[in-house]
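TonB-dependent siderophore receptor, pasting as requested.
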Amino acid sequence: MLGKAIRAALLGTALGITAVPAVTLAAQTGSVSQQYNIPAGSLDEVLNQFARKAGITLSSTPQMTQGLQSPGLQGSYATDQALRQLLNGSGLEAVSQDGGSYVLRAQPQDAALSLPSTEVREFALGNALGSMEGYNATHSQVATKTSAPILETSQSVSVVTRQQMDDQGSQTVAQTMRYTPGVLTNPYGATHRYDYVAMRGFNDGSVDNIYLDGLKSMGDSGTYSTMQVDPYFLERVDILKGPSSVLYGRSSPGGLVALTSKKPLYEAYHQVQASVGTQGQRGVGFDFSGPLDDDKRIAYRLVGLADQSDTQFDHNKEKRFALAPTLSINFSEDTSLTLQAYLQNDPDGGYHAGVPADGALHQRNGQRISDHFFEGEPGIDRYERDQQSFGYQFEHRFNDVFTARQNFRYLDSTVKMDQVYAWGWTTPTSNELNRYYTGGDEKLHAYIIDNMLQAEYFTGSAKHTTLLGLDYQRRKTVVDWRSGALAPINAFDPQYGNSEITYFDPTSYLRRLQQTGVYLQDLIELDQWRFSLGLRQDWVKTSDENRIAEASRPVGTKISDERTKLTGRAGVLYLFENGIAPYISYSESFNPNSYADQSGNPLAPTDGTQWEAGIKYQPPGTDNLFTASVFRIEQENLASKLPQEEFYRPVGQVRSQGLELEAHMQVTDNLKVLGSYTFTDIEYAKSMPSTLFASDLDNKGNSPTQAPRHMASLWADYNFRQGALDGLRLGGGVRYVGSSWVDAENTMKVPSYTLFDASLGYDLGKVGLKGVDVRLNANNLTNQSYIASCASLSYCYMGEERNVSATVSYQF
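Structure tokens follow.
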């Protein structure tokens, strides 16, 4: 009954307020003087520092303050007086609103020329979700679902900006995070079909930790139906390390990746681009945005892309067509609505398979498997994905205390797949690989809705930002799977054309998932202290219904599982005046297993807990950020499956602990630098060996596969802004991935590897072609041949070879 009542309330159009607690409003006045010592710097950073110290909300947009500098502020000033001093000569002014908030706008020449406040009212989310210059984001909402300074967040958060994606030539979402600590972005090598991301040593072979615009992507990790978004459609990527179920429900203990799509702009923006590259890569894209009315209350954005490539693997292609229309409406200063759609068709999904360690990591019979080797059949291999999503983001501010938000998305996806893959050598000395066939026709329908009520108020001298949320998600997947076997293939001299398949019995399932969650979070600011408290209750139901008779399961047999779970989070941080912020936090996660064991029984959910401590440092007067964090994660009941098996097995308890270092630096106006280091010590702390297989051993104390112990990266970008080289941009980076284990028994290691990347760009506006920009990107510049990782002795994954792309863009 409780679940039904919650869902009935949840599916309403907007949150209603039936009772308002007694609170004390933040009554900042513009006449009370405070002492300030804020050094000179960029105007947006100086204003951010001032707003924090003054205890006010200052609304703005990145475009307003772009390129502006401020001399800082020293001395005793009232709030209004200080703002006038800070904005003197900038052409901007701060207009006081109710409740200690201010809106930044252009100084009007007369009343008719003043900017409508609707252009800047979304600052609370804009500085956590919107566009920005450079690599340094100061705010994020991924950890709290509110706009919070990263410096003041008691958990490890990293942000990849749009400019970083462009400078580094990121071709997939996973590639955007190549320079982020704690993240292994290529556990399955050079495949681009899914955005696999292993975080803090945890990789369950799914993409369950990807979120889009605050909502789970809702793909089905137990099938081939997984939503993927092209990075061209994104404004930024936020990465939260560690468990996060208190706000998001079911999730991985390693962390989550939050994608933010491009939103409409209230100034005209038009951009087209074309790219060509190695492996036959070629593509075109466009990005148009601007207001639709004279009052600039309605704006649109239309982004499109067509791209294709031959890939590095023989007989494999990738092809994509995508379109994203978006419309934003500001009904008033207090109410806004953004309508979104994302349409993507992938006629060719590229390569996705692995080869044995014997032959990939070292020679077999004096030969090594080629980086281009394709073990399938050209006439059979295909992966077609068609996905459409529709959603909205609604926000209404009732008063200076309460704001309601509702996010919704519906996803429809179809996948058609045929693949021939290898598994093991036919004999101990043979050059031929056994080959099997798998095929699938899948249809996925899912929707998710998240309602939030946010209250900002004071109790005494403590400022609270309290968030009450209610979310619901539902997913249905119909899967028809085929399997079979066919003739072996010579791994060193492949001959294709023998495509006769011996089919096994087909299978068909109807898979369902429902999740309802209620969560409460309180963020407290008390002097220099920052406290974070959160609690969530989830009700999750999964089922797997057999649609075709099997030997042990008649038609209609349903495996179902219902779980309730309470998760929490707590954190404390102290913000020193010099920009140093030490913190400690505790967080939990859970993820119900939609997998069954060999007897058809659902596995118990995986539970994760984390302790994390760290220090963040943001030098006053800059938006540079340095972070050092140590963590310990324990996860129970992790599910594992060998590639040739049809069922999963629990592997007991996994413990991961380590150290992460990260630096985001705008060293000068010309030079940007990113640096990171990761140490991860992960092992099976308590194993549950199966008795079905003689080869199964107690792996306690061993490390899981695809979990390198050390990783490090460094990226620098220099922009010449004067002299003969004015307009030239140079970038370069190095990525190191340490060794990892090939198998859970830890009998063989994948060697470490080091990769170099480079970029070269030039603004042709400097030579008279206004709006035209060219960029050249090279990944794995030295064409290092390497194995990215191995999941077992039978499955190792080829690393991505050198790829070079040239992009020409025109903005008008």
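Note for the archive: DSSP finds nine helices and 45 strands in the chain.
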